[in-house]
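dumping these here so i dont lose them again. two proteins, back to back, each one seq then structure tokens. dont judge the mess
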Amino acid sequence: MLQYLRSLVFVGQMYLMMALMALVFTPAVLIRRQVAFVAVHAFCRWVRWTASWMVGLRSEVRGEPPQGECLIAAKHQSFFDIILIISEVPRPKFIMKAELKWVPIVGWYAYWIGCVPVNRGKRTLAIAQMKAGVAAGRATPGQLIIYPQGTRVAPGARLPYKVGTGILYSELGQGCVPAATNVGVFWPRIGVRRKPGLAVVEFLPPIPPGLSSDVFMRRLEQEVEAASNRLMAEAGFDGPR
């Protein structure tokens, strides 16, 4: 019960701080769009810091966070892996659900940092939207983050990797940095209770450009799933992997 109450207070202050930071930063963002990156970095670092002492959830980013223009294909288990990735890469932008662009604050800042909204459930249209959105954003270098499974996946659950990641990899002609995580062990997909422990996002060695889409997708899934299973086992997760 105590951990639940601590988690409730933590979640409440997190969204309150999101609103306060939006109030502070938005006037400057309207003048100079690049300030949006300062805002999202500040918020994500605030969440990591408050999680560490309010609910005992420490966080760590391993590997080498990419600094140049690239594709990041990341395991997605909860909101917290988004927080960890954004806090460490300089110019993050996401392939995100189209519905999020209408969410106050989140949608505004997603637009300002160059995120690409796509409609889920309409495969052909979604792929076309991704390609068009990425092409439109080429003038703003950054780290394009995509979740190959398309949604949050609880620890131990299985969901196929979607072909859109392979198409983007081929279209961009850039290397891809895989990213694994165990955050779902501590911060669930839904619900309030956060568990104490060490949440990790790990950037894996880059996959070079030039592979066929099929070869790339097989390699990506193998590397991300193996590393995520290792991190979850390290966190004490003993469910199916």
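---- next one ----
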Amino acid sequence: MKKLIIAFIPVFFLAGCSILEEKAAILNSQNEGSTTQGLTNSEVISGLKEALSVGVNNAVSVTSVTDGFLDNSKIKLPFPPSAQKMKQRAIDWGLEGQVDQIVTTLNRAAEDAAGEAAPIFLNAIKNMTVNDGFEILNGGEGAATRFLKRQTTDELMTAFSPVVDNSINKVKLTEYWNPVASRYNQAVRFTGDDPVEDDLNKYVTERAIDGLFVVVEEEENKIRKDPKARVTQTLRRVFGSL
């Protein structure tokens, strides 16, 4: 079935919406032994929008809660990689608890920011074109997530940054970070190492967005692979056709 759809993609893109609907119906009717009625172009787009909406809502709901990032090893924000020397020096000074608290508060800020993603994602989904839809449908695992990355990353950066900044203040991240960084920066005057000047807002914002897309892709691929994840009739028809 997938091969037949792929074979007609050039026709789809050249012929316009009315012919798209006709071709989709013909292709489905030619599937031997199939009892599924032909899918129209509007059904395909509707199904993809449903899939993306379900996926992003699930992703946001599991990341924007307490420990949504911290307890997920795939997306947990580590101590800033550019400050690893500072981390080790802090541990040597007996400040391991302070280091752990920094990691916790970094993830709290990411969890706060994740809640801002849903409307941005949903707006991109609403504006999906016919070409976008068939590219996603036939693009395999992660295709929908790649579409969302292209459409939303800049807007997510803009939306997340002030939320992260507020969250950094709310969880008192700088109260844990600044004393360690200040002590380290005083020490490196004598060691010749570079001082730490990490932009924590930028670090949290970028890592929060990266982590969110990891979970979005997991949700997308569940729908592609697992019939049980297709929670509506439209999803079952569209993804069952593959």
